[in-house]
Amino acid sequence: MTNLVRRLPHPADFPAPPTAADRVRWTAADTAARPERLARLRAKMAAEGIDAYFGVRPEHMRYLTGFTLDDGEDRVAGHSGRFLISADQVVVLADSRYRLQAAAQAPGARIENTTYDLAAIWPELLRGLGARRVAVEAAHVSHQLWGELAAATPDVELVPAAGWVESFRAVKEPAEIERIRAACGVADRALATLLRHIKPGKTEHDLALALEWEMRTGGGDGLAFGIACLAGPNAALPHGSPSAREVHLGQVLLFDFGAMVDGYRSDMTRTLFMGEPSERDLAIYETVLEAQAASLAMLSAALRGEAAVPSGKAADAAARAVIESAGHGDHFGHGTGHGIGLATHELPSLSRAATDDPLPSPTVFSVEPGIYLDGETGVRIEDLVLFDTSRKDLEILTSFPRDPVVIGV
Amino acid sequence: MTNLVRRLPHPADFPAPPTAADRVRWTAADTAARPERLARLRAKMAAEGIDAYFGVRPEHMRYLTGFTLDDGEDRVAGHSGRFLISADQVVVLADSRYRLQAAAQAPGARIENTTYDLAAIWPELLRGLGARRVAVEAAHVSHQLWGELAAATPDVELVPAAGWVESFRAVKEPAEIERIRAACGVADRALATLLRHIKPGKTEHDLALALEWEMRTGGGDGLAFGIACLAGPNAALPHGSPSAREVHLGQVLLFDFGAMVDGYRSDMTRTLFMGEPSERDLAIYETVLEAQAASLAMLSAALRGEAAVPSGKAADAAARAVIESAGHGDHFGHGTGHGIGLATHELPSLSRAATDDPLPSPTVFSVEPGIYLDGETGVRIEDLVLFDTSRKDLEILTSFPRDPVVIGV
Fold it and tell me: Mutation test of the interface with chain B: which of A140, A142, A204, A336, choosing the one with the most B Cβ atoms within 10 A?
């Protein structure tokens, strides 16, 4: 039987926000790491007989070149920020709006002017790189653009490249882990601050906005993603948005949220109890907690050397088995976890569809089983963990208590 | 000579925030308009010999089906929200996370379960619709997905569809215009509220956060896009992000920002003067204001029946000519304007690359010339206008004064 937590966690229980010195150190660490990141890509290019890599994902642009677009900015940036990497050059495209910023953030790159018509300059760009076989991020380049580029350079072979940089990014550098850890701390503290203000009659929307404010004024540069704050039956919507619904005693209150610190994201879900939990809700909570513990135990055992490094599929199955034996297999539709870093969802995946390969290391991912009863209630418990085979145990980066917390009374 | 505005505008000068009744009316208007929106698409499909339309843009999903993902949610939604429209059916894809939400928001649609492997269910989906020629949003479907879908149904022809729904959405319904107007009011009031708190020593970041807070607690459901707050030389970065730079007397302070109301967006730029403007900054300001006035005058003349409806290219050229004759042609790299609605940037475009077709009507777009001197200063003035040939004059939806406003003293 799980203990109900009635003494609320306090903001001071969690690490302090990042300092200006931390940020200077992280920027320097990225600059220092970029040659190695590029070398890894160039080795892959050489192995595949590729002369140039055409990248379009904003996360890859930042990771490999330094040029950084804010969330959502890529929607209006046109081709700005897209980049080409050859054996000896890095080219970043930027129209007049972004030229100065790109030059400042990507000093190792040549900044090339672009317009909305990338195909018009494509032949010249490739000629400048001497590129005849070009790898393209085919999962992120539109079919239309691919066609335009292919038509513009009929003598060049475009080769779909899927998951190259994604697989590099799954393995985290120390300064990347520091930023995810800092983002987890920002989120932990924000929820602890909010707890005392959660009272019956507040709306999901009000609470989500207040939680956002705490993160953004408490060391976060932004949100990792839109906050889910879901009360009672709404908690059965695993990705619902906060509504004008009021929270009431006797209901669950689910927060799924994360902070962003210097581009790196956290992700945590807590399902709190407004007043005394119902028997049904508490039973589900305990099953979900047990499911999460099963997955965490498997990961810990591998780090302690008591078992082989599991695959994402095995780590998912460990949690899923607990939920299935409780009779809730049909009420847990999503995967058990996902990698996180510059993107909220990245490799590795912990799911039924994941590969049988052992998990990479060091890497950071979520462990987040849930049970959802349509129209009734829902419970999810999500933490981020650092899985690092050079260390003796799993580090859980999100520190907010996982035992059921009673609030609002 | 432009008058300096020294008596600051007051929040009460601008319209009140939208009410709950407004929101109920808008939702009803969307529901009522959806059959006509679908009929327009189906007429286009029939004309092109298309059996089904496969859409992936979140704006199109909302416009045609009702299912609405929050900003950024599409990054983690997988195929959820993608949709198929045939002559007599609407199918919305949703995995377990979104199924209940999709059913509630798109009652006219059949909700089909999906996983990350869309190609696996694609043949069955198309068979259910009897579709042999399928239009696909080729500018938004990845090259990889296109290839997977094509391979899954070799007997089906995939036809690239570019700009179909975009061109429908350029023409705005009354309830769409109401929401953009409401979003403009939220933004106007927020800036007027902030003005009194702008003092030397505040940072760009602090001011951007305060402005965001005013919009989000003053009737906005969110931001239209990340706020640009740029002081002094930073204003030469037309799409820069707010930094830790402090604002000082004698500098310009540029805000480019917008609110979102029920999914519809506003967009406005004001370049304010911290204390007395320098001669250089004021001269640039006056040129930009004159450029904007030239474009607005051309649009007004068309509505008053004194001239033909101009193209987006002509409306751009009118503003650009003023800036060029002032010798700043090289310092105005971007287009003069863009349509706005469910997306921040949509049709019509006011730019050198725009078509020679007359502007659509009724439509809403920005008029936003600018002059940027690298490393020195920048000025942009941006308003949204309603261009409606059934009315006798242009309506400027953003009401904040366009004359130069002096603050911080």
Answer: A142
**Domains defined for chain A, CATH in brackets:** 51-160 (3.40.350.10), 172-407 (3.90.230.10)
> Distance (Å) from the C-alpha of residue A327 to the closest C-alpha of chain B?
17
Q: What residues in B contact A225, CB-CB < 8 Å? A: 72-73, 75-76
To 5 degrees, how large is the angle CA A93–CA A99–CA A101?
A: 110
Chain A residues close to B142, C-beta within 8 Å: 138-143
**Residue-level pLDDT at B1:** 54
A119, pLDDT greater than 90: yes
| Residue that is written with structure tokens 């209630």 in the block | A377
Confidence (pLDDT) at A72: 78
Mutate to test the interface with A, among B56, B143, B262 (most CBs of A within 10 A): B143
Helix%, strand%, coil% for chain B, nearest 5: 40, 20, 40
DSSP A145-174: HHHHHHHH-TTSEEEE--SHHHHHHHSPPH
Instruction: Give B71's contacts in chain A (Cβ within 8 Å).
Output: 72, 226
Residues of A in contact with B97 (CB under 8 A): 237-239, 333-334
- Residues facing B390 on adjacent strands: none
* A346 to chain B: closest CA residue: B76
Q: Which of A262, A232, A300 is nearest to A26 (CA)?
A: A262
Q: How far is B301 from chain A (nearest CA, A)?
A: 30
What is the ipTM for the molecules in this complex?
A: 0.89
Chain A residues lying within 8 Å of B55, measured CB to CB:
none
Handedness of CA A325, A331, A333, A334 (dihedral sign): negative
- SS3 at position A389: coil
DSSP alpha helix (H) spans, A221-372: 279-303, 312-325
Whole-number average pLDDT of chain A: 95
Q: Hey, are the CB atoms on A225 and B343 less than 8 Å from each other?
A: no
Cα A134–chain centre separation: 28
**Higher pLDDT residue, A70 or A395?**
A395
Task: Please give the model's pTM, rounded to 2 decimal places.
Answer: 0.91
Helix (H) or strand (E) holding B60: helix B58-65
B392 to chain A, closest Cα gap in Å = 32
A153: nearest Cα among A130, A172, A137, A180: A130
CB under 8 A, 24+ apart: contacts of A18-25 = A18/A179, A18/A182, A18/A186, A18/A219, A18/A261, A18/A262, A22/A178, A22/A182, A23/A262, A25/A175
Q: Give the ranges where B130-249 is alpha helix by DSSP (H).
A: 143-152, 164-170, 174-195, 204-216
Rounded to an integer, what distance in angstroms lies between the CA atom of residue A184 and that of residue A66?
A: 23
- Cβ(A205)–Cβ(A243) below 8 Å: yes
Residues of A in contact with B236 (CB under 8 A): 100
In the A/B pair of chains, how many CB contacts fall below 8 A? Answer: 127
3-state class (DSSP) for residue A16 = coil
Cross-chain Cβ contact B73/A239 below 8 Å = yes
